[in-house]
Amino acid sequence: MSTDAEKIRHLNDLVLNSPDFDRLQQMVGHFNIFRVLRLEHYEIRHSNMLAWLLDPKESHGLDDVFLRRWLMRVLHDFNNTDLQTIQVMSWEIRSVEVRREWKNIDVLVVITLGDGEKWVIALENKVGFKQGKAQLSRYQKKIDDEFNDTHRRLFIFLTRDGEQPAEDAKDYLMADYGQIHRALKDSLGIKSPVLGFEPKILIENYRRLLEEQFMEDSEIANLARKIYAQHKEALDLIIEHKPDWIRDLSDTLSKALKEIETELSYSVIGVNKFYIRLLPKSWNSPSNHGRGAWGGVNASVLLDVNLGIDRVKFTIVAGNTPEPWSQEIWENPARFGLKQHNRGKKPRKFLSFHILYDHRINHPENQLLDVEEIVKDLIPKFVESYNSETNQKVIQNIAEFITQMPD
Length: 407
Description:
The strands form two sheets. The chain has a five-stranded mixed sheet, sandwiched between helices. Strands 6-7-8-9-10 form a five-stranded antiparallel sheet. The protein has 407 residues and is of the alpha+beta class. It is globular and about 80 Å long. A hairpin with a 4-residue loop joins strand 2 and strand 3. 45% of the residues lie in helices and 20% in strands.
């Protein structure tokens, strides 16, 4: 194990004696609006940007150059002999319609050519999450049903990591962000002299972001790998002490939940890195106290907020409750407004029996997230779920049953 003196020496060597590190800082240290706003890992932001770039009528000034260049690149790289890329270059385009989230499809492009021929392009974009079960095939059916009279229907699966379309979605062409980067670079080379200042800066920011964050074979990625090989000890030390985003999420979320305690009539009674524990006022009765189930929290039945890598789950839990009491909930969930379950033997000590709200987090691996944005998105959805008629009935039923809990 390295001593503190050796660790400091490794860090000094990285900072003072690495021209490659200085060069990398120069390459990635410039202003980028997407990094400032922490948008680089949010799938919806990339889809918004792509929809804007693909629409010739939008304010970017690229006309249909990016649309053609990107589509040609995808077709060429996929080596689809039936769809000649030269066709796209020779198109006489009459109109282009770009839709976002049409029937849950990320980006839909409807192209009408001069002779009336129509092409429909359905783009499914995955930055952090993987494809859902039968997701792509469901989207394909929607397109086939809605646009069955079009000349061509293209299905494109855009991913960051080269994920393959599922077996039931073999018609999808695979695409990556390197193709977008190259199409943007080509488009800027063609249209740069006539672009406005603001859109040119925005497009260039986005192109640089893709090179830094999404391209494994870029100059930046190769330089970063070289620096890591030369200064592994120093960089491992930095990674070991990088900010703990789950702890930050716990601190930020617990503060936000405390701010709405009065509104929702509960109390925040415990906080650690992975759990926040809430006690609805109607559950704060003597029969719910004194069994020491949750480590310093004086309640047996509570609302547990579990913080994980990709989700925040609000669940009603019970611990160390008398066996007849918990057995009644386990065997007769409908009595309390809970969903019927098909589980095995009842847990002996800790029982989880109702999810009030389950919030998914778009969390690309090894990337820090903006916890304030996560909490800002989460809180109103939790409030809506907590106040729903179904959940309020469950909370009231549990409150009444708690008073029947034997000592």
